[in-house]
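Re: the pair you flagged

First of the two:
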Amino acid sequence: MKKMGSVFTKLTLGVILATAVVACNQNKTADKATASVTPASSGTTATAKSEIVYINQDTLLSKYAYVKDMTGRLETKGKAAQTDLQSKGQAFQREVAEYQKNQGTMAADARQATEQRLQRKQQELQAYQQNAGAQVQNDQAAEQAKLYEKISDFVKQYAKDKGYKMVLTYQKGNANMLYGDASLDITADILKGLNDAYAKDKK
């Protein structure tokens, strides 16, 4: 069974967010229209005059506290499922070994009955393993859905407040976005807002 950490690292905000398009509020105050944010990689600032901005998803996924906690939960569940499967598998192997040790002295009908029983147990173990794997995948999907909602809802409200019409995501090596000016990078502000909100939720 795969470790949860390796599975989760494949998750990208390109899938989670893609692009969040938000209609600009025409009645926003002058303060909101000129509000500035702190970029992640530059001393310059992105303002509401920019209609399109972006988030560095590598930075966000590595520093968002909720993602760290989520990964820990998935890893714990995955390890528990793996331990359970190993325990059941080892118990089955012991039964097989015991049968192989004694089959030479067993009556034909007893051997046949034991082999049938072991075959059924093997099938049950395989089915249990498949169900356990499906449960782990369901847990991943549920956690990812929660992550999507948290980030998407926050970014949509943030964009509305700041007057941005589109929020893109950037990932190193992702050809969908080859370049973005540092003044349009709102990662630091988004990350701070998400972590502040999550810290309040945990309390």
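Second of the two:
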Amino acid sequence: MAYANLQDMIDRYGERELIDVTRTLNDDRDVMNVARINRALEEASELVETYLQRRYQLPLHPIHLAVTRAVCAIARYDLCQGNDREPSEQIRAGRKDALAWLTDVASGKATLDASLINERSETWSRIQTRPRSMQGTGLW
């Protein structure tokens, strides 16, 4: 499930940029490659889910604006690569910020208003205490 759509990308970055980054030499000058944009949004959404899957029930519902923003920034970066293109520093910084925020969400430093997953795994580590020894230093 994509957490952003074509209109989100247009609203954030404008039609002209999307046309420029998705157009090939054989394409019309004023037509964006919608299929390529949608694929980038799907891939970015899947990447976002890898950060969220241990803490939240997926797919997220409702979709949070911060998640949409992160997906758009990651998709924008992906669209700007290839065909002798390199993302600008602004685009790189946007992706880096999005990934840093996702890392914070994954670690619990930032949260979403979404359903948390209740971990029921038997493989989580547990602390076991040992009785103190009466001999020596008391360590064993």
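The chain is about 50% helix and 0% strand.

-B.
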